């Protein structure tokens, strides 16, 4: 599940070296901001970026997917990547890997997996994942810790058609967000954010009182036409915040 921030929004953290995909992403964002690629202009290809940064094509693809999710670029199979028209750039939320966010602060991340199994989807969940009621879907319930303190309860359902190997992954060694970035073609995401109380189970897993306010994010991700995941991400209000800035 990862964590998420809005453009210009990030948890306060000390500066840390950028991961390879982040270097590619920052290079392209800087070029867009400087007008190197005006709206509608074709941007460097995956092959060009792979050679320029001496990294894998998969790593470059991740950077481009994230820029696409932020509304900064448009990608067309067989044609390439293009700077997004200005009217398409809006306030969006960016999917980030919580493990990387914690690591950027110089802190230690570890995950406790409480559920990892296939389940039959009831009607409401089936509608979220675009499958028929009773379809077998994948379910994980994971609590992410920062320096031993529970930071996020991630309750996630996955469409098996998009990630058939999901249940075989060791999520104490990688996060669902990182794995899904690698095996799916993320096209867009939908978010709902609210301040609310946790369920009794969430409160127990996070080590907080059921009366403690939490930041709760409901998120769906999609390929071009198919829902990939539906996740409920619960963060204790005293341990998680969003910060940002805006410049016209």
- Unreliable spans are 3-14, 87-92
What do we call the CATH homologous superfamily of the largest domain?
Answer: Chorismate lyase-like
Our estimate of the beta-strand percent is 25-35%
Main-sheet strand order equals 5-6-7-10-9-8
Characterization of the model:
The protein has 248 residues and is α+β, with helices and mostly antiparallel strands. The chain folds into 2 domains: 3-94, Winged helix-like DNA-binding domain superfamily/Winged helix DNA-binding domain (Arc Repressor Mutant, subunit A); 98-236, Chorismate lyase-like (Chorismate lyase, 3-Layer(aba) Sandwich), CATH 3.40.1410. Helices cover 26% and strands 30% of the residues. It has 7 helices and 10 strands. The protein has helices at residues 20-33, 46-53, 57-69, 98-104, 123-129, 176-183, 200-206; strands at residues 3-5, 73-76, 80-83, 94-96, 109-120, 136-146, 149-158, 188-196, 214-222, 227-236. The strands form 3 sheets. Strands 5-6-7-10-9-8 form a 6-stranded antiparallel sheet. Strands 1-4 form a two-stranded antiparallel ribbon. A two-stranded antiparallel ribbon has the order 2-3. The protein is globular.
Summarize the structure.
The chain is an alpha+beta fold and 248 residues long. The protein has helices at residues 20-33, 46-53, 57-69, 98-104, 123-129, 176-183, 200-206, and strands spanning 3-5, 73-76, 80-83, 94-96, 109-120, 136-146, 149-158, 188-196, 214-222, 227-236. The chain is globular.
